[in-house]
């Protein structure tokens, strides 16, 4: 090797430096920093927030208690789009089962209305929102698409479905207003829910018996939970508790559990509703204690676990309790049975105090929304109507996205439900009727992802002993406030 | 007795050490291959053992092959093959052209383009990851194979450089003689340089193919629909969704995804070694 | 026919066909792929990236916000600093070890026997498969709580270690995965070793130098340009580490493996904060350039070039 080549390399690196130079002089300027660092304005806009909150609560109030027994027949129109040919794009995310079932329903719809072509775009969760973000940027979103409770980010592109409900295109005769309200926010019917969910604790009843513990009461507290977890760890040698949704536990569910009527985020997604970090502290401390004693898995173990219900330590027999969503119960129980680790049962989420609020509500797992620039809004609405009301379609879907919101579909599925499935349906029904759940917001602002990650990091630091729970809570609080000022 | 005992012992130690260390090196790979025949319980509870304790489980392969989201690994391997195949061919053609120009033709600005080429060789890809995504997005190419193969039609610095090194070993007299005989510079490329570049081209074919085959970040960013996934992306998602509860199947598909690389290694080992060493040296 | 044309060149104005035969034309025709690609897929995106770094681009809107992203990075984002620090640690841990292994093994395998080339092949295999998702998944399983490494440790009576869950340990498995792939550097070293004239060694042997002395007095200095090349390339690759963080640890625990490339990906494609992601990527470029420059500057002290007319 001669000097020539090294010289060439050096030249190249020198070039890289000079190319980079134009970027770097920006980064080191400190003057700009002083100008922009202002105290976050936390109080501004709180009036609007409460107003928005009122609206949601109102919507929820008006609606409770749709009668289950009274099932009306839904008549589907003979043709859509006057029989003229049209093509719409339909996208959703999910796993394999969902993809197969959804494709089948799409085929059924196209068979019924041969003039309509639906092109489908199934994907996984991460890819879905990445794709969606680019489509929003390009102004070319799918005509009908699945959406979770993160509609706040997309309000500008969503068609308000209220007119279609009023003119009967989307038949809601068999849907209680309460269920409709799970996707009603900021004065708009954002989407029609395809299934409802509630937070739930899944536990291994056999392990509870082994440890000589009573099964959880409906209003058990986090203190009880921790005691159970420690006892279970002591006796079984496995984790007392598998993953708790740490961010929800400390923040979005945790805060409404306190008795001062606050939520973590403001209802209009403009910032934090809490004014001090203290709300997060007890939960963080609990996780820290349980992690230290080995009753709760550390980050490495949680990373190993994966995110599907079948991978949960409760399903593999390596833990006794876990936080989950009600639509995960069946899959987890099935896996637990296959692994021969015991019988799984469900319990309510523990509370901050035994006579305090539960802090959570029934929420829509996912819904279908319509793009507001679609050429065929009526066809899309008809498709949604078919998707939620057709008994044949729902025999295929079989409640995979959560408890179906139309009573007709629930009634049609009911006979084929197992004991556990029935208990899940009952559970979701029960949570839906809790009075205090009306005060819980269901919104998820776009900043949530980053805040959630920050929370996870801070929690890891607490577990590593490098900061205290108070410091972690304060860091998350500051980070979140900062995220909303950008 | 030509060899003294001391020398024999020394030799034995040498082979013991180098061989033993070599075994240690490939142990993880062997462990993966054997792991594809173990069941979950075996992998979790007898992890120190090399051979299966609880019997050989062939069904892992069938379970794994079923794939993800209704698409079997057949689809994913086909996708990988398409992407890696196109990218590799494109790289060979474009890089050899550019290498010919930079090594053999004295055109204005050659030195500048040569240093640009060296600069891209050292440029971290992540710097342009985001804007490239935007560009592909604006031409509606996200979700297709286009972003994964298009850059390869414009030459890859690493291979251009390597081919240039090789070109320097081809006697200039050959093209000069051809030129005197009335052969155009275009024909010199196709009739003289390209055939003589063959060893370097083989190296490029191999290395580019397995780089592209292994690539994870590109597919991760650009491919969202399962039907378009390459083997590496599918493997990751497979592991996330069911692999952790079915390690054997995950190992089986992991092994399968490496088979093309193993084959290359076995058949073209010599070219690989030459190719790698020529980039770091000579010149 | 061509000869005639050549002869007539001076007298007549050039036709298009003739012009295409000039060195400039041929050069640009053949270099065209690279030039087009360089401008469209490197320079243009870099400019775009620089522009994005001055906006709050998030797919939907891109408002110009001046240097706010950089201010935020340097004054308000502790994750960024930590990410930079961990990336540094990783590079410092992995790159020197990798090169030392590569050099030593190459040195021991200089003999040109069949068995030596078999060994070389075996040592080379990991760098062929090491970057793949498959191996990353295997690594994750090897260092899992009930994984192979802990299984072996358990068998010899050592307590399980929490490799991937402890932020003080987690860099080791990841660095090991990098070091494990020393094969390609080894091959470059091996080729370099071949070029050292045997006469040097013979002369040293006559002078009575031990093999250790020969290694330090002859091998290392003669190989120093190759070492420099490997060091630079491996350092750059080291700073770009992504797949391992993405697959094995997802950046955790406590951001301990949130390497800078992974952080850019997270900001850009998870939080959709493309503007900020672009800003970080520019800082990353500057950091890499500075480190490379430092290596080159110090190299004057330890890299020896042959005078060129030794023989």
TrEMBL record, chain A:
Q: InterPro entries of this UniProt entry?
A: Bact_solute-bd_prot1, SBP
User: Which organism encodes this protein?
Assistant: Cuneatibacter caecimuris
Entry-linked Gene3D superfamilies: Periplasmic binding protein-like II
Q: Does the keyword Ribosomal protein apply?
A: no
Q: Where is the composition biased (Basic and acidic residues)?
A: 44-70
UniProt keyword annotation of Signal present: yes
Signal sequence, start to end: 1-20
Q: What is this protein called?
A: Carbohydrate ABC transporter substrate-binding protein (CUT1 family)
Keywords assigned: Signal
Q: Where is this region: Disordered?
A: 23-70
Query: Which Pfam families does this chain map to?
Result: SBP_bac_1
Automatic annotation (TrEMBL), chain B:
What is its membrane topology? Multi-pass membrane protein
Q: What is its main location?
A: membrane
Gene Ontology BP term (one): transmembrane transport
Name the domain of life. Bacteria
Q: Which Gene3D superfamilies does this UniProt record tie to the protein?
A: MetI-like
Q: Name one GO cellular component term.
A: plasma membrane
The record places domain ABC transmembrane type-1 at: 77-268
Subcellular location, record wording: Cell membrane
Q: Which UniProt keywords apply?
A: Cell membrane, Membrane, Transmembrane, Transmembrane helix, Transport
Family the UniProt entry places it in: Belongs to the binding-protein-dependent transport system permease family.
Q: What is this protein's record name?
A: Carbohydrate ABC transporter membrane protein 2 (CUT1 family)
UniProtKB/TrEMBL annotation, chain C:
Which GO CC annotations does the UniProt entry carry? plasma membrane
Instruction: Report the Pfam families cross-referenced here.
Output: BPD_transp_1
Q: What is its main location?
A: membrane
Record bears the keyword Repressor: no
* Domain of life where this protein originates: Bacteria
**GO BP term, pick one:** transmembrane transport
Recorded hits in Gene3D superfamilies, A to Z, give: MetI-like
UniProtKB keywords: Cell membrane, Membrane, Transmembrane, Transmembrane helix, Transport
SUPFAM superfamilies cross-referenced by the UniProt entry: MetI-like
In which compartments does the protein localize?
Cell membrane
Report the coiled-coil segments.
none
- Is Cell membrane given among the entry's keywords? yes
The name of this protein is: Carbohydrate ABC transporter membrane protein 1 (CUT1 family)
Biological classification of the source: Bacteria, Bacillati, Bacillota, Clostridia, Lachnospirales
């Amino acid at each position: 090797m001669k000097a020539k080549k090294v010289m060439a390399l050096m030249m190249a690196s020198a070039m890289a430096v000079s190319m980079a130079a134009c970027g770097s002089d920006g980064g080191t300027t400190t003057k700009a920093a002083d100008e922009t660092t202002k105290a976050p304005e936390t109080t501004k806009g709180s009036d609007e927030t409460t107003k928005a909150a009122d609206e949601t609560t109102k919507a929820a109030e008006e609606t409770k208690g749709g009668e289950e027994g009274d099932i009306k027949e839904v008549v589907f129109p003979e043709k859509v789009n006057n029989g003229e040919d049209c093509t719409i794009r339909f996208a959703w995310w999910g796993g394999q089962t969902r993809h197969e079932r959804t494709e089948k329903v799409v085929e059924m719809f196209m068979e019924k209305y041969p003039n309509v072509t639906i092109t489908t775009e199934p994907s996984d969760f991460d890819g879905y929102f990445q794709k969606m973000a680019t489509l929003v940027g390009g102004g070319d979103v799918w005509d009908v698409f699945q959406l979770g409770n993160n509609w706040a980010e997309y309000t500008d592109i969503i068609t308000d479905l209220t007119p279609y409900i009023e003119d009967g295109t989307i038949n809601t005769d068999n849907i209680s207003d309460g269920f409709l309200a799970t996707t009603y926010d900021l004065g708009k019917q954002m989407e029609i829910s395809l299934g409802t969910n509630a937070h739930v604790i899944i536990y291994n009843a056999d392990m509870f018996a082994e440890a000589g513990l009573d099964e959880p009461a409906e209003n058990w507290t986090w203190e009880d939970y921790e005691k159970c977890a420690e006892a279970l760890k002591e006796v079984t040698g496995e984790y007392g508790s598998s993953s708790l949704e740490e961010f929800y536990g400390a923040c979005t569910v945790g805060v409404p559990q306190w008795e001062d009527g606050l939520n973590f985020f403001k209802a209009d997604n403009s910032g934090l509703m809490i004014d001090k970090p203290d709300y997060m502290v007890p939960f963080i401390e609990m996780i820290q204690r349980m992690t230290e004693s080995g009753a709760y898995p550390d980050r490495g173990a949680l990373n190993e676990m994966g995110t599907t219900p079948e991978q949960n330590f409760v399903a593999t027999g390596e833990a006794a309790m876990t936080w989950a969503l009600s639509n995960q119960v069946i899959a987890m129980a099935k896996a637990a049975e296959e692994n021969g680790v015991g019988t799984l049962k469900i319990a309510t989420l523990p509370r901050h105090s035994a006579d305090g609020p539960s802090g959570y509500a029934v929420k829509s797992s996912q819904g279908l929304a319509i793009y507001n620039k679609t050429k065929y809004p009526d066809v899309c609405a008809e498709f949604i109507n078919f998707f939620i009301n057709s008994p044949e379609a729902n025999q295929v879907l079989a409640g995979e996205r959560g408890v179906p919101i139309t009573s007709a579909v629930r009634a049609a599925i009911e006979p084929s439900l197992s004991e556990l499935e029935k208990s899940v349906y009952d559970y979701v029904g029960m949570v839906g009727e809790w009075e205090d759940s009306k005060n819980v917001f269901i919104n998820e602002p776009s900043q949530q992802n980053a805040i959630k990650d920050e929370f996870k990091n801070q929690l890891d630091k607490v577990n590593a002993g490098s900061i205290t729970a108070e410091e972690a809570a304060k860091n998350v609080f500051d980070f979140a406030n900062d995220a909303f000022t950008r | 007795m030509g060899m003294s005992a001391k020398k024999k012992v020394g030799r034995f130690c040498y082979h013991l050490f180098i061989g033993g260390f070599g075994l240690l090196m490939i142990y993880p790979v062997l462990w993966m291959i054997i792991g594809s025949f173990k069941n979950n319980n075996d992998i979790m509870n007898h992890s120190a053992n090399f051979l299966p304790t609880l019997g050989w489980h062939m069904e892992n392969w069938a379970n794994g092959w079923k794939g993800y989201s209704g698409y079997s690994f057949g689809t994913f391997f086909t996708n990988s093959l398409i992407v890696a195949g196109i990218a590799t061919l494109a790289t060979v053609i474009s890089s050899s052209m550019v290498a010919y120009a930079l090594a053999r033709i004295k055109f204005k600005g050659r030195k500048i383009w040569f240093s640009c080429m060296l600069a891209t060789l050292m440029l971290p890809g992540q710097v342009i990851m985001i804007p490239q995504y935007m560009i592909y997005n604006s031409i509606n190419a996200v979700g297709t194979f286009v972003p994964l193969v298009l850059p390869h039609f414009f030459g890859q610095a690493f291979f251009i450089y390597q081919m240039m090194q090789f070109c320097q070993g081809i006697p200039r007299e050959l093209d000069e003689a051809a030129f005197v005989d009335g052969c155009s510079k275009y024909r010199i490329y196709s009739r003289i340089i390209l055939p003589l570049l063959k060893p370097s081209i083989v190296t490029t074919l191999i290395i580019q193919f397995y780089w592209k085959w292994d690539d994870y970040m590109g597919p991760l960013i650009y491919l969202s629909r399962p039907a378009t996934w390459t083997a590496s992306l599918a493997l990751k998602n497979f592991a996330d969704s069911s692999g952790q509860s079915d390690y054997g199947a995950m190992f089986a598909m992991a092994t399968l995804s490496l088979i093309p690389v193993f084959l290359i290694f076995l058949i073209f080992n010599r070219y690989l070694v030459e190719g790698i060493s020529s980039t770091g040296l000579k010149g | 026919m061509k000869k005639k044309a050549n002869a007539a060149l001076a007298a007549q104005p050039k036709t298009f066909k003739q012009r295409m035969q000039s060195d400039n034309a041929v050069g640009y025709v053949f270099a065209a792929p690279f030039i087009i690609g360089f401008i469209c897929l490197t320079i243009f995106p870099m400019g775009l990236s620089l522009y994005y770094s001055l906006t709050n681009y998030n797919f939907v809107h891109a408002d110009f916000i001046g240097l706010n992203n950089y201010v935020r990075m340097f004054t308000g984002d502790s994750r960024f600093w930590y990410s930079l620090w961990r990336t540094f640690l990783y590079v410092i841990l992995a790159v020197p070890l990798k090169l030392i292994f590569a050099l030593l093994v190459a040195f021991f395998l200089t003999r040109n026997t069949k068995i030596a080339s078999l060994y070389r092949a075996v040592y080379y295999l990991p760098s062929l498969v090491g970057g793949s998702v498959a191996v990353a998944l295997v690594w994750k399983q090897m260092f899992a709580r009930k994984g192979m490494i802990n299984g072996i440790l358990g068998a010899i009576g050592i307590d399980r270690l929490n490799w991937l869950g402890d932020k003080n340990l987690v860099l080791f498995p990841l660095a090991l995965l990098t070091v494990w792939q020393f094969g390609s550097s080894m091959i470059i070293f091996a080729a370099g070793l071949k070029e050292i004239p045997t006469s040097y060694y013979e002369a040293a042997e006559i002078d009575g130098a031990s093999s250790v002395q020969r290694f330090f007095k002859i091998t290392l200095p003669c190989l120093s340009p190759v070492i420099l090349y490997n060091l630079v390339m491996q350092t750059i690759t080291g700073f770009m580490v992504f797949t391992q963080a993405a697959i094995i640890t997802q950046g955790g625990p406590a951001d301990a493996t949130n390497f800078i490339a992974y952080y850019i990906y997270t900001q850009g494609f998870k939080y959709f904060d493309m503007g900020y992601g672009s800003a970080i990527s520019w800082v990353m470029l500057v950091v890499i350039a500075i480190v490379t420059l430092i290596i080159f500057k110090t190299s004057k002290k330890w890299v020896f070039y042959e005078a060129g007319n030794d023989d």
